[in-house]
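Task: complex structure prediction.
Instruction: return structure tokens for all chains below.
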Amino acid sequence: MVQNPVSLVPVSPPSAEQRVCRDAQPAAEGEKRTRYTLPKGLQSGSPIGYRTRISMTQAEADEASVLFALPRPTGFVASDAVLERELFDEVSLGVLSARQSTNFRGHKQVSFGPADSAKVAGILRSMNGVEAEVLDNAAMTHVVLTRPYRTPFTLLLTFVGHTMGLNLMTVPWRALSKRFRHTDDVPSIGYLQHLHLGILADAMERAAVIASAGRRQAQIFMAPFSDKVARKANKVAMAELSRMCGLDAADAAEGWRIGLVAQVGAVAEPVALSLATARKVGGNLMAFRSERIQPGVNAEESAPSAYQNRQDMDVPEDLAFMAARAAYNSFSHWTGCEREQAKQLLLLERIDVLTDGGKERLRSIRRDNNGITDALIANLPLWADLPMGKALSRNANRGRKAFALVGQRIYIGGLDKEEVKAAGLDSTVACQAIGAASSRSAKLCELAGCIDLPDDCDLLVGTCLMAGPVNQNDIGKQFYGYSDLLSGAYADKNPTSMIVWTLKAKTVADPLGNEEQLMNPRRKGALVDLRPAPHQVVTLRIDDRLVPMRKVAGRTSQERAFADAQNFVLGPEGHHIPGNPGSAWPQSLAGAPVWTEST
Amino acid sequence: MSTTRIEFDVPPTTGSMMFRAAFGRKGGLKEGENLARFEAAVNGVTVAQLAEYQGVCGFPESDIVPITMPQVVAAPLHMAVLTHPSFPMPAMGMVHVASRIIQERPIHADESLDVLVWIEGQRQARKGCEADLITEIRSGGEKVWESVTTVLSMAAKGHGEKSAPPPIPSPEPTRSAVWSMPSDLGRRYGTIAGDRNPIHLWPITAKLFGFKRHIIHGMWLLARAMAELDSDVGEGRVQVDVSFKRPVFLPGTAAFSAGPHDGGIAFRLDNPEKGKTHLFGSVKTLA
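Output:
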């Protein structure tokens, strides 16, 4: 599918007196540590670390814009073996960092060398519904395993929407059904698994290019694994692929299954991306975070002044336009539909918060979602809530923050499933494509916010991908008679909203404590995904053995990917946070080919 | 002064020596007394348990002997010297305070090594005296590795004068990682290194010797540091210096950092919570 070229539009910083940036300091002796204080250290195998964004020139941004409209590769050529560090960089941009829900780890990856890749290609060719040409000469193939989204929030949902009296039976029934049949309480929880996979697919496609500075590309397949019908049609091939991945009955019982396959290989015509720009983009992608704390909106009173002051900044209209273009590109790319059709099928409501109409729309969404929360709490079975000290209702109440919509440009994305079906598309694949679209759109904006980034600003644009408002609305739809978030904007259709993403021009990055909650298992909080180390989620198949990546006797990796970008958060007087810059994996291992056979 | 020389055909086992160290009684050095020369030698030793050593210390598997491993090869001779009936100071209670290692060239796993160890003389320290245990390793007559292990014994009178501690280098780190050390690390390393000093084994055995918990071997910390430094250590003629400041209790964590300093690489290991330094040192390539 032909994608329209996108460009990265710079964002003007505010006047010098309005510029603020994160200035986290260590807690003083005896002072209580908060999320605004500097962490004492970082012990993590995650390739990310505490990072800062790197300023890019307009020329570098123009070069990087190719990453937001990558065509599928048409063939792979024979190439040098993949070095271990190249693979590390690639998985660091992919399965180890692709934006997922913050308190859920739902992906694992098994990577195969050239010989196994040929076998996987044979399996793919035997499958029905493969959405693109299966290519020969892959240097490696990644198989991503996925599982249903399950968190404390979905545990709470088990108790939601039951009829009084009958709930003594219906709650256990639903709990058992979730546990053993992997059903979802509301459809939008099921969509999360697909959205996350789409986000990862889009990230993996960019990752292959960035990690190889344009030499390699990825050919990604999701359709044959998308839903039960597709999987049933490919039962034998799926079983063979699962066997190669070491997926056993216990994994399957936990809901793990194959989500996507990515062939990665050298292309005859490299993508025009210089090594220097690739490293800079890689460093920036490591730095991007879900920006949840918006100045002047929901910062606590105790937050430093940098988080309290409003700034006269806005997301430029041209950038918002490019963000939407990137989203349509991505949707078209992953569903295989024409771009004009993508504009019809991908339902997008854009809310410009700074306008009167935008403010009113935001208030109405907030009002509705609060109403749903009130109904939900009133409807919770007391026999479950009271013995738990009202933990269920407390948590439901706390959830209001998860769907607090903030930003300057807010997009609500969704589909009319009937319309999608009528267009001959698979609605699961379309859902995955919406995840990819939102992610690509947000990443484009974040990278644009690094153009000519002044020294006294952390960033110029922050983004946030949220499913919370959609999930809350879905509870209202399923149990309390509310209409879909998109029903106002698409009154003539039967829309299903799936994800929200918000853009905000600002200069101060999230409190570092938010990231610490992601990195430090001992600080588990609402925002924990325990960003994984390579050995925790990536398995390599070498000589018919499955081995965890970067785990050798007595040692696991603490290397940070794209560390050469040197964009680590610094403490007072420019000192590094202990453990944050990481330490390179032994060169004798990192500099060696992962698989010795050639393509 | 007389020399006490012990020669072995094969490296001695350390079990009985450890028993002597733990339960033997020695009076220490008398005032004005000088430590006589004690030496021990064994020829034709090959490196054993290389893969296990590499594994427990975090070195990648290779047939090159890690720069710190010859110390393990020589450890039985160190014990033989320090627990010799005529050696005046008690081995138990000696504190390993510093080391210097000079590797002339990398040693291969299949080389036959001649090991000579000696100690002679002492110097007064603030609390007791320090002595240098020298190890020299030859292969085919060529010196390939040597070390100076400085130990502090309280079984002698110290000069009692406080002196300013040497500054600890703090370069811009090119490596910074936090290590997790499990409770059984001392037992696993001790088995491979042949150093089953009770202070490294269990909390209860360490308590018997005055420690609140068991501690990891200083030489494991140095080996892990060399593994972390990886190719930064260099392959030619290399000198490693290290000062051990505070023990690391098990289980525990420590923050390692290293960066270019004074023509080489300076490294240090700190307590990530309290910031106190466990050890610091440097690696230099020699001409």
